[in-house]
Amino acid sequence: MRRGQPRDRSREPRRPQNVSEKKGSGTSRTARRESGIAYSRSLRFWLDPANVAVRLQQAGPVLRTRTGPAVAFQMNDPALLRKVGSSEDVFQFWGTDPCLEDVAGRGITGAEGRAHRERRAVMRPALAAPRLKGLGTSVWSRTRHLVDGIPSDRPVDVRYEMGRLAAGLVVETVLNSTLSPETLSGLARSRSAVSAGMIWKYTLSPWPWLPAPRQRAFRRAAALLDRASREVYDNHRPDPDGGDVVSLLKRASGDDRRAVEHDLYALLLAGIETTTGTLAWACYELGRHPEHQDALRAEADAAFGAAPSSEGVRAELLPRAAGFITEVTRVHGIPFLVRRTRDATCLGGQSLPARAVVTLPLGALRRDPARYARPDDFDPLRWSPDAQPPLSPGPVLAYGLGPRYCPGAAAADIMGPVALAGLVHARTFRMARPGRKVRVSLELTPTPKGLSMVVAPRTPRAEGAVPPQGPGPAADSGAGPGPGPQTGPGVGSCPVSGSGSAPAPAPGSGSGSDSDSDER
To answer: Which of 41, 142, 262, 332 is most solvent-facing, going by the fewest CB within 10 Å?
Structure first.
């Protein structure tokens, strides 16, 4: 084309539509603005589920992607996603990678095949639903106790406070033990260093000569987690019948204390990581939606009153809280899982070399407009028992799939809704500085970094006042069941099971590992 000659744009390839422009995607510019999430250019592909959803709509069953020098293969077909997640003999779980042997390679996380199945079988009776009848009461009691330690006279770092709450709940209600206040606070402060450190170690493993960021902080945080596992072992209070998790692990390991501590290390890492992320994002949405906060508080008041009985706290009495947790997982949950091919293979007509990174875009499935009306809107009432047509939480894949399906799923179904009810029953959450940027951390579980809120004692409701009911249920589609087991509401996917990590296949080209969002 000569200089000065008008450009013939009719012959140019059409630019792919943005997520906010694509027709039929169930997404609008208004919805994107109201969501309060704005991802940085370097992380948008990996952390923004809506962006991935549009990319996959434009692709075939397998999408070949490139980030820097690395190539990854995204699964677009739900059947292929299920196959990859369920075939550990072909696709290696990220936690068993040699680069993570000193951290994730401990206990149940690093075990494969028969050894992994045997460790899961040891814990299964203690984490089965019939054994957890009293868990709701324990979670309620410990939540109220731990919430008393959150300052009410100044803004607080929500991610830290929810990390402290999550660590206390996992240790005290699931593992029947205690931690010193110093260790509890240390775990909350150092959680992100362990989480981000594992991401970087895995991401940079093809280039071992490259130094991973923040490795000194990572080693200190890993050492603290190791110390916490020893405290859990020493302070363990066994159930009278010896059927609790730690008692079963001790019995199965004989006199091998270190083997038990390795499993406790894995359970602490998984439980604290996922519960922190879910509760922190729940607080974020409580601040954005006061009407839902009021309705959740009214539900807790109606179900439990001021002082629940020892047998009175049950998650099934909290359908609104359960729906809220499920929606938090759908909107803010882990965006994708990662596997590596053990050998060269073929998938969806695409040849994959050995050691190729394969990603399972759970976040894109959770934004599928064929399944969810207004998929980018935060609408917990879409999970209401009265919603028409009713939705199953199974396709959210809160606990992963295949042999790495979270062993603590039944406990998480109880802990999430009850802890949320305990929080709103005691406190009122509001943004400390509306309009201030909040960043989305690139960690095992993305969390809202820099989220500052005022967590004030609740304001008594006037006698006879009718609590707000919030907006009506979403008119979601009745699409057939998607991949994965049919489960209840989740507190997020589990690193122990293989459903908890979303390490990027290669380092981003941007300046950091966080992206911005707005407090609204």
So the answer is: 41
The per-residue DSSP string of 233-265 comes to HHT----TTS-SHHHHHHHHHTT-HHHHHHHHH
How does pLDDT run across 70-128, given as a tens digit for each residue? 778 888 888 888 899 888 889 988 777 777 777 766 778 888 888 889 999 999 999 99
Residue 21 domain flag: no
Half-sphere exposure of 459 (CA within 13 A, CB side): 10
Does position 16 have pLDDT exceeding 80, yes or no?
A: no
Region 237-249: mean pLDDT is 96
For the cut 90, the answer to whether the pLDDT of residue 458 exceeds it is no
Residue 263 maps to which CATH number?
1.10.630.10
Helix (H) or strand (E) holding 91: strand 91-93
Instruction: Provide φ and ψ at 517, rounded to 5°.
Output: -145, 165
The answer to whether residue 12 sits within a structural domain is no
Q: How many whole angstroms separate alpha carbon 252 and alpha carbon 232?
A: 17
Measure the CA–CA gap between 412 and 432, rounded to whole angstroms.
29
pLDDT tens digits, 348-389? 888 999 988 898 888 888 888 888 999 989 999 999 999 888
What is the predicted pLDDT for the residue at 394? 85
Tell whether residue 494 is among the known ligand binding residues. no
Higher-pLDDT residue of 342, 443 = 342
Phi first, then psi, for residue 108 (nearest 5°) are -65, -30
pLDDT band at 55 (very low <50, low <70, confident <90, very high): low
Pinpoint the alpha helices (H) of 98-243: 107-110, 113-127, 135-147, 158-169, 181-203, 215-234
CA distance 171 to 159: 18
Is 380 among the domain residues? yes
| Residue spans of beta strands (DSSP E) within 303-386 | 337-341, 345-347, 350-352, 357-360
In eight-state DSSP terms, residue 291 is: H
Among 164, 80, 176, 167, CA closest to 127: 176
For residue 292, give its domain range.
Answer: 26-458+481-505
Name the DSSP letter for residue 24: T
Number of domains in the chain: 1
Q: Are 484 and 80 in contact (CB under 8 A)?
A: no
CA pseudo-torsion sign 170, 171, 173, 174: positive
* 7 lies in some domain: no
